[in-house]
Structure formats: structure tokens, C-alpha cells
UniProtKB/TrEMBL annotation:
InterPro entries: DUF3618
Compositional bias ranges of the Basic and acidic residues kind: 1-28, 59-69, 85-120, 129-143
TM ranges: none
UniProt cross-references to Pfam families, sorted A to Z: DUF3618 (PF12277)
Residue span of region Disordered: 1-31, 52-144
Stated name of the protein: DUF3618 domain-containing protein
Segments forming a coiled coil: none
Native source organism of the sequence: Streptomyces litmocidini
Lineage of producing organism: Bacteria, Bacillati, Actinomycetota, Actinomycetes, Kitasatosporales
SUPFAM superfamilies: Apolipoprotein A-I
Amino acid sequence: MTQSPHDEPTASSPEELREQVEQTRAELGETVGALAARTDVKARAREKVATVKEQAAAKADELKEKTTDLAHQAQGKATDLAHQAQEKATDLTHQAQEKATDLAHQAQDKVPDPLKDKTARAVGQARAETGRLWREKTPEPVRHTTARAVRTARDNRGPLLAAAGVAVVTWLVCRRRKG
């Protein structure tokens, strides 16, 4: 009801008067409904709770998505770091193998020729004696199994050397960390 009743023109017929009364009743009903909604604390609280729940659910979905993205990023970084570590270990293994080979050659170059000859003869005699004792003292099944193991080792020299290189590098790294 926005106008006072005195401002309104009077109706010229009873039909017009009924329409004005109906219109006033409708306006009054809307006003009362709006006032009732404002004073209904429980209904307003329920609306507020529903709004907060919707906002919380939306925020939870957003955080879940962010967490998933961060987890994927962390997994990718971890994979990259693992590959880098593996490449570094391979490089260090190759370097250690090269260094060991160089040191062996340097040691061989420093040994005098007469000593090399004497050592070669001693090694040959030791091999012959070891072979004789091996054949005389070792049971046949043990010799057979050992021969198979030796053949397998000779056939797989590359992997065995790589494993030995990794073991040496691991030992050196552990020794470096302790010292």
C-alpha cells in the first residue's frame, strides 16, 4: 500500500470499487508475506545454512581438484628426479670403470719386466698345482656344478662387470658419506 486512501480517486461504479478493493488486498497480502518472511528466523537460518553448505561443497571440490593437480605434479617431478639419479649413477659407474682400468694399466706399466716374467711363471705353476689338487680332492658333482657356474659367468661378463662397478660405486659413495 503505497498511497494513502485519501489520494485515490473514488470509484464511479461498484464494479470499480470491487477491483480497487481486490488490488489493495493483493498488495496488502504481498506486504504481509514479505514482512513474515523477514521475521521468520528459522526459515532465514535454513536458507543461510543451505547457502553455506553449497559454498563449502564448491570449495571442497575446488580444493580436491587442486590437491589432485599438485599430486600429479609431484609425481612427475619425482619421476624426473628418479631418472636423473639413474643417469647420474650410470655415469658414475662408467667413470669408476674407466678409472679402475686406468689404474690397472698404470700399475702394470710400473712393474719391471723381469718381475712380470717371474710372476707369470709363478702364476702358471700355481694354476697347475691348483688344478691338480682340484681334480684329486674335489668330488665330481662339485666340479661339475662349479664348471657350469664358470661357464655362466664367462657367458655373462657384461652384466657381472656392470654389477661389480655398481657395487664399487656404492661402496665409494657410502665411504664418502661416512668420512
